[in-house]
Automatic annotation (TrEMBL):
PROSITE patterns, A to Z: TCP1_2, TCP1_3
Protein source organism: Amborella trichopoda
InterPro entries: Chaperone_TCP-1, Chaperonin_TCP-1_CS, Cpn60/GroEL/TCP-1, GroEL-like_apical_dom_sf, GROEL-like_equatorial_sf, TCP-1-like_intermed_sf
Localization, UniProt: Cytoplasm
Superkingdom to which the source organism belongs: Eukaryota
Region (Disordered): 376-413
The protein's name: CCT-eta
A Gene Ontology biological process term: protein folding
GO molecular-function terms, A-Z: ATP binding; ATP hydrolysis activity; ATP-dependent protein folding chaperone; unfolded protein binding
Lineage: Eukaryota, Viridiplantae, Streptophyta, Embryophyta, Tracheophyta
Keyword field: ATP-binding, Chaperone, Cytoplasm, Nucleotide-binding
GO cellular component term, pick one: chaperonin-containing T-complex
Similarity comment: Belongs to the TCP-1 chaperonin family.
Compositional bias ranges of the Low complexity kind: 379-392
SUPFAM superfamilies in alphabetical order: GroEL apical domain-like, GroEL equatorial domain-like, GroEL-intermediate domain like
Length: 413
């Protein structure tokens, strides 16, 4: 499901991306700002899993609250949570499947299906095969030091352009093999780039200057997006960004795990089984950690309109199978049941889940390590005086009234 965010400037944003929504919210509470920080961190590190880290962090804190209220020292919780995160990460590495050794065509086909799965829940999900093929072709065509962007490149032999952003300058330099200069004086051949053909093309109502035949064209790729509404284009760009990051991460790390909530359910099952070997009260804390991980498949069911309790019960029955084949069963959002996610190419890079576990655990531990909030009394009084000054505009300090107008009335609802 998408969210519509309307700010005080009149800007409207439609998105289901966790990092985008968290950035646009006017968050004041210091603990809540921690969730914004980990969402941004997840976005910058691996480019996906931003909603996951917010959901799991919130669930960790919710599960830990009863223990704090019962008098459990926060340090005991923190110690148990960090130990549990190590167990979870090791289990993820154990369950990860390598895609190394496959042919180029096999790997390309896998990446296209992975990108299509990523795009299936976005605004452009109806054309996911088209965009998935575009994303994979662009990503596999470039090298390690790449410039994959959702805008257009421009260049010419002697092209004069004004108000060019630094990002565009760096991109043109990377494509042509040139170097950005701050002055046109004393330019030498070593800093000049080259190309074979310059074209100015009309696309809709806009004109684009395009390079072709660049010496470093293997390190650049461009996708131009066009559409009706600005909100649609912005969300399409964000969706393609996540598809690109998923494909890039999968190609570079070469290890994937089952998606659709399968890996979360399997880690939860593993932790519940592990606590049986612990005789101390920390087993209660680990159990709460395991329960919190089930928030991912539960949310998948809720957002798809299915009965989460029924689906989770099926997954709990499937995962403990002695053969181990149940570890890859996750939520099927098409039928409302469960499915073998690897067979349907519903998987994600292992590094995304490992990063999410690390970030959420540290966020929960950080919040629980705070036992008191201290405010500066002077700053509070200054804010109160500023508010009173803003309210009073008449001689008596109260609001100035126009003749014939009744005084304002405050209604407390």
């Amino acid at each position: 499901m998408d969210k519509l965010i309307h700010d005080d400037k009149g800007n409207t944003t439609i998105s289901n991306d966790g990092a985008t929504i968290m950035k646009l919210l006017d968050i004041v509470h210091p603990s809540a700002k921690t969730l914004v920080a980990i969402a941004n961190s997840q976005d910058s590190e691996v480019g996906d899993g931003t909603t996951t880290v917010v959901l799991i962090s919130g669930k960790f804190l919710k599960e830990a609250k009863p223990f704090i209220e019962d008098g459990v020292h926060p340090r005991n919780l923190i110690r148990s949570y960090r130990t549990t995160s190590y167990l979870a990460i090791n289990k993820i590495k154990e369950l990860a499947v390598s895609i190394e050794g496959r042919s180029f065509e096999e790997k390309k086909d896998l990446m296209q299906k992975c990108a299509a799965t990523t795009l299936s829940s976005t605004l452009i999900g109806g054309e996911k095969e088209f965009f998935a093929s575009m994303v994979v072709d662009a990503e596999m065509a470039i090298g390690e030091d790449d410039w994959l962007n959702l805008i257009v490149l421009c260049r010419s032999r002697y092209l004069c352009a004004g108000r060019v952003t630094e990002e565009d300058l760096q991109r043109v330099a990377a494509a042509t093999g040139g170097t950005v200069q701050t002055s046109v004086n004393n330019i030498i051949d070593e800093v000049l780039g080259c190309y074979e053909l310059f074209e100015e093309k009309q696309v809709g109502n806009e004109r684009f200057n395009i390079f072709s035949g660049c010496p470093t064209s293997g390190q650049t790729a461009t996708i131009v997006l066009r559409g009706g509404a600005d909100q649609f284009i912005e969300e399409a760009e964000r969706s393609l960004h996540y598809a690109i990051m998923i494909v890039r991460t999968a190609l570079r790390t070469s290890t994937v795990v089952a998606g659709g909530g399968a890996i979360d359910m399997e880690i939860s099952r593993y932790l519940r089984q592990h606590v049986r070997t612990i005789a101390r009260k920390s087993q209660l804390f680990i159990n709460s950690y395991a329960k919190a991980l089930e928030i991912i498949p539960r949310q998948l069911c809720d957002k798809a309109g299915f009965d989460a309790t029924d689906v989770l019960n099926k997954l709990r029955q499937k995962h403990p199978l002695p053969s181990g084949e149940g570890a890859c069963y996750g939520v099927d959002i098409n039928t409302g049941g469960i499915t073998y996610t690897f067979a349907n190419f519903v998987w994600e890079p292992a590094v995304v889940k490992i990063s999410a576990i690390n970030a959420t655990t540290e966020a929960a531990c950080l919040v629980r390590s705070v036992d008191e909030t201290v405010k500066n009394p002077k700053s509070e009084s200054a804010q109160g005086e500023a508010a009173a000054s803003a309210m009073g505009r008449g001689r008596g300090g109260g609001p100035a009234l126009l003749e014939g107008h009744a005084p304002p009335v405050n209604f407390n609802v």
